[in-house]
Design goal:
The complex is a heterodimer of chains A (about 220) and B (about 10). Chain A has about 220 residues and is an all-alpha fold. In chain A, about 70% of the residues lie in helices and about 0% in strands. In chain B, about 50% of the residues lie in helices and about 0% in strands. The chains are: A mainly alpha (about 220), B mainly alpha (about 10). The interface of A and B includes residues 114, 167 and 176 of A. Chain A: Belongs to the ERD2 family. Chain A: This is ER lumen protein-retaining receptor.
Amino acid sequence: MNIFRLAGDMTHLLSIVVLLLKIRTTKSCAGISLKTQELYVIVFITRYLDLFTRYVSFYNTAMKLVFIGTSVAIVWYMRLHKVVKQTYSRDEDTFKHYLLIPPCFILALLIPLEFTVTEILWSFSIYLEAVAILPQLLLLQRSSNIDNLTGSYVFLLGAYRALYIVNWVYRFFTETHKIRWIPWISGLVQTALYADFFYYYIKSWKNHEKLRLPA
Amino acid sequence: TVTTDLKDEL
């Protein structure tokens, strides 16, 4: 464990805490894409299949349970909670997210880490996570005003993978000296997708103005 | 093998 990866995990955890805070305190999920949240449930489940078969550390197991549990809870809130589900921006959250699944799965079959079920699903989850934010970014472009908690959520979510990239560079030079194409390229694509959001988020933060994404 | 060092990350 290095400081960059710990910072990455904590940033990821914080993004989920911010999202749950928004949903629970405002009893609203306006501006949040249910499709992105559903993709994250798939990402975590397909990535953590070894949850019960391989024990890495208490921290690793605990975080996996937290990520799976919270992502399922968020989808539950947005789909089933009697108050919150009314606030879901259904007619703006229109990205056909199911179209992202077949290409990621085919790519995982073509370029798996190893040709075993768990490694193919693990590669699938890495590829899917890279594009899972797309429905959310599209929804932000359509939202007239993005509330602070939603903006912070997306910012932290993007920042966590950027910190992971630093962690990979650090590990390459200090530990493994191995090139890990799958997570590295996916992580770079994932972080690049946030590029314009980061630009407008930091600009709005500097100028103390409301965050707005150009349509 | 390669898979082991991948798997201690989340």
